[in-house]
Amino acid sequence: MPQLNPNPWFFIMIISWFTYSMIIQPKLTAFITMNPPSSKAPTTPSTTPWDWPWT
Fold first, then answer.
1. What span, in angstroms and rounded, lies between the C-alpha atoms of 19 and 27?
2. Where are the beta strands (DSSP E) in the chain?
3. What is the CB neighbour count within 10 angstroms for residue 38?
4. DSSP 3-state assignment of 41?
5. How far is residue 19's CA from residue 34's CA, in Å, rounded to a whole number?
6. Which regions span the lipid bilayer (predicted)?
7. How far is C-alpha 31 from the chain's CA centre?
8. Nearest-angstrom CA–CA distance, 18 and 13
9. What is the rounded distance in angstroms from the CA atom of residue 17 to the CA atom of residue 54?
10. How far apart, in whole angstroms, are the C-alpha atoms of residue 30 and residue 24?
11. Which SS3 state, helix, strand or coil, does residue 10 take?
12. How far is CA 47 from the centre of its chain?
């Protein structure tokens, strides 16, 4: 069965992962985020209950 022959596909997989790991991934992780996370504590908004006129 030809699909069980790993000869060409294993080489393609190794080259693909090598390309991703050594070339593409460092370029993607080098980007500076435009909106960095802040160190401020999150604030909870103070809400007032709505007074319904029919209750």
1. 12
2. none
3. 7
4. coil
5. 27
6. 6-24
7. 13
8. 8
9. 66
10. 10
11. helix
12. 34
pLDDT at residue 3, as a whole number: 67
d(CA 39, CA 22): 32
pTM for the full model? Answer: 0.43
pLDDT in 10s for each residue of the chain, 55 residues = 556 777 888 889 999 999 888 888 888 878 777 777 777 887 888 888 887 787 5
Q: Shortest CA distance to 23 belongs to which of 13, 15, 11? A: 15
Distance in angstroms between the alpha carbons of the first and the last residue of the chain? 76
**pLDDT at position 15:** 92
Which structure tokens are listed for 37? 């996370």
